[in-house]
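Deliverable D4.2, example record:
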Amino acid sequence: MSKLLHISASPRGPRSESLALAATFLGTVRETDPDLTIEEYDLWDGTLPAFGPDAAAAKMAVFAGEQPQGAAAEAWAAAIATFRRFDAADRYLFSVPMWNAGVPYILKQFIDVVSQPGLVFGFDATEGYTGLLRDKRAAVIYTSAVYGPARGPAFGADFQAPYLEEWLRWSGISDVRTIQFRPNLATAGAEAARRQAHDRARDEAKRFAA
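Output generated by the structure prediction step:
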């Protein structure tokens, strides 16, 4: 049975544009495929482990073909548990607000925790990296309040979508659909753009659940 994991990177609750779009997307998925299991993963709920010195030591030990020991082993076990929760799904919805031209740090932390050798990727000294996530698909909701692709450099740059989509591709997930809501909230017209984004979320959700 398929499982969809919604990974939320917004801490703004009911004020979040990305979470509002996610609610529209998930509501449509439930209508389209009532048998699909949906799990929510709020990255701000305090369960995401840190990736600090012990975890880094564990990762390098595994790279060297060694077994992590002591505190490093505990950090490695926490990383594996997080990866298993992630890997248990075959479909993903990421809701990602733009922070300072990039992704929220909590999403980068999640990526650092799960991106481990033998789990998300393999590595060969001659061939390089190989993504190990197979037969999975992802939908990503991007929001930004000031940046927009048609605006000049004074309105910012986009290191948000290129970063996340490169990580998905690198991990082995090539089926990626996107929904964007990037109005300039200082000007008129945001409501029309919001309606269009929610319409696109519904359309993508129907295809995603099929």
